[in-house]
């Protein structure tokens, strides 16, 4: 995990299918559920993209925003549509496959409306990004819906 010019960038490797990774990372509501922070997400399809209304807990109370997530050739890119508390946000999932192993990377850049040095915002976001990547790794590593009663 690293921070670079206000971005928080993290990646993990997981033994999973590309289809499972796309199904998870293309579903903002499911990501919020596995992350476990208590974010409320309401999503709707807009063309190839998914627009989400999000209410997320934070250190300064609940943060509300609307974002849109669209597929890219190598993953998904999310951006801010509207928020009274966030000035801008860019979130990118990148998925690469090598010999059956997936490399899942997440790059988050967001600027709150309150005046805070961007370096500090990135440092404070690191813990949440780490928790998110751990949840994604756990979810993709679990055997998917075994029907044999196992």
How much helix, percentage-wise, in residues?
25-40%
Distance between the termini: 36 Å
Arithmetic mean pLDDT = 88
- Count of helix runs: 3
Describe this structure in words.
The protein has three helices and eight strands. It has 150 residues and is of the alpha+beta class. The chain is globular. The C terminus is likely disordered.
List keywords for this structure.
single chain; 150 residues; Alpha-D-Glucose-1,6-Bisphosphate, Chain A, domain 4; 8-stranded antiparallel sheet; 3 helices; 27% helix
Lay out the secondary structure:
Layout: E1 2-4, E2 7-14, H1 18-25, H2 28-35, E3 40-46, E4 49-58, E5 61-72, E6 75-82, E7 86-98, E8 101-112, H3 118-141
Antiparallel strand pairs: 1-2, 2-8, 3-4, 4-5, 5-6, 6-7, 7-8
Short characterization:
The protein contains three helices and eight strands.
């Amino acid at each position: 995990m690293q921070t670079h010019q206000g971005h928080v960038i993290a990646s993990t490797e997981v033994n999973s299918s590309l289809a499972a990774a796309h199904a998870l990372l293309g579903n903002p509501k499911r990501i919020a559920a596995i992350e476990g922070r208590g974010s409320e997400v309401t999503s709707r399809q807009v063309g190839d993209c998914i627009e989400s209304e999000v209410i997320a807990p934070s250190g300064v109370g609940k943060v509300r925003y609307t974002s849109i997530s669209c597929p890219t050739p190598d993953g998904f890119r999310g951006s801010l549509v509207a928020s009274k508390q966030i000035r801008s946000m860019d979130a990118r999932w990148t998925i690469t496959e090598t010999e059956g192993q997936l490399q899942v990377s997440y790059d988050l850049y967001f600027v709150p409306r309150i005046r805070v040095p961007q370096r500090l915002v990135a440092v404070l976001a690191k813990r949440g990004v780490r928790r998110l990547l751990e949840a994604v790794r756990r979810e993709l590593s679990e055997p998917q819906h075994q029907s044999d009663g196992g």
